[in-house]
Each structure stands twice: as C-alpha cells, then as structure tokens.
Amino acid sequence: MEQRLLIVEDDRLMAEAAADYFTGKGWRVDRCGQGEAALEILERKSFHLILLDVMLPGMDGFALCRRIRRDSDVPVIFITARVLEEDMLHGYSLGADDYVTKPFSLPVLYAKAAALTGRVGGRRDFLEAGSLKVDLAGHRVWNQGRLLSLPPKEYEMLVFFLENPGRIFSRDQILIRFWGYDFEGNERVVDNHMKKLRKALGSWGGSVKTVRGSGYRLEVDL
Fold first, then answer.
1. Which pLDDT value is given to residue 193?
2. In what order do the strands lie in the sheet with 126-129?
3. Residue 107: cis peptide before it, omega within 30 degrees of 0
C-alpha cells in the first residue's frame, strides 16, 4: 500500500528536499507552506503522516496540530528550529508524535517516519509485544491470551509507550501529554497511574521500567 505524506513547511528548499527523499522511497507527497492551506488539503485527502513546521505564517504549527487532532490521529512530526523544552512539551500535549530539529538528517527523519507508520499500511490495527496484544480499533488488551481490564487513561499510556519503545519520558512529559499543558496537579498523578497500569498488566507490567531521576521507559522486544 502506497504511503501518503503531507509536508507543511514554508521553507521551499527544505520542503522540496524532504519531498524528493520520500518520493524516492515510494511515498506519494503533497506539500504546502501555510496552515490554512493544509486544512483545505486535509478536507480532501487522507495521509499516513504529516511533517509540520512549528513556525508557519498565519496559523502556526501548534494551532494546526490542535485542529488536526479534532478529527484525526494521523502521526505528526514537528519540524522546528527552536529547541526549547517548553515548546516540545507543548507540542506533545497537543498530540504530536515526535520532533526533528533544523537542520536535520533526511535518513533520520525517514527512520522516524517509518517507525511511526509501521513502514507499510499506515498505523497498524494491532500492537504486539511478547505475550501482550493490543487491538487499537477495539481498545482491547490481552496478555497471554487473557483479556485485561484497563481504564481509559492507562490504555492510552500503554499504547503511547508501545509506540515509543526504549525512549525515556520524564514525569513532566507524561503529565503534559496526558493531562494537558494547564493541568494544576503535580507529578504524583503520573506515578499513581503508572502503578495502576503495571497492576492492570499483571505479569507484563514489569516491562514498564522506572528510570531513577529521569522518568519511565518501556523495555520490550516488539
């Protein structure tokens, strides 16, 4: 199945370089340089991935990502020249899947894209890791063939970690990603939900590791 990519980037040369690279890998690519134009394209077409510049004229990348997430869970990779942690955390809270910083390596960008889209056919219907199986459409989880009961928040956190294996996420990142940028609680809510997630997963819960002084990481072979 042919992969479809939308590049929203006002730097024409950068957009052309990325488009040429992905086209050479067999992707079909659309591109535009403004947020409003991207919304018009998204009304007519569907995509497996969106590369989204943060600093766009008019509607910026953050506002566009917020609009996209109203109707779609298509993977979004932000392209940014700014490396401020608060910008990254804000992007994750809006539903972004990853970041690349300008100037970036096209092979690295493509590797991130391939990981997010499962390389073929867009996002997968199921995620499997060892004895664990997740039905993404039905929001159901099995371990060793036994159907588990996960509350909505714990389910969302599990899918997030399965889609980002091996990466360490700080409590702040997890807090903003799942409770929002303006959440008034503290980091203890993250620890409490991670404890509930591990308990709900039973024997598989040990795959979610605490990294002392850093946060949490999923250690499993996918």
1. 93
2. 126-129, 132-135, 140-143, 146-148
3. no
Distance CA 48, CA 216 (A): 28
Please list the ranges in the chain whose pLDDT falls under 70.
1, 82-85, 87, 118-124, 180-185, 221-222
pLDDT in tens, 5-61: 999 999 899 899 999 999 998 899 999 999 999 999 988 888 889 999 988 888 988
d(Cα 113, Cα 85) in Å, to the nearest integer? 22
Which residues are registered as beta bridge partners of 76? 50
pTM score of the predicted model: 0.56
Of 43, 77, 37, 73, nearest to 56 by C-alpha is 37
Between the two ends of the chain, the Cα-to-Cα distance in Å is 22
Q: Where are the alpha helices (DSSP H) in the chain?
A: 12-24, 35-44, 61-71, 85-94, 106-117, 152-163, 171-179, 188-201
- Write the DSSP string, 146-186: EEE---HHHHHHHHHHHHSTT--B-HHHHHHHHH-TT--S-
What's the distance, CA 164 to chain centroid? Answer: 8
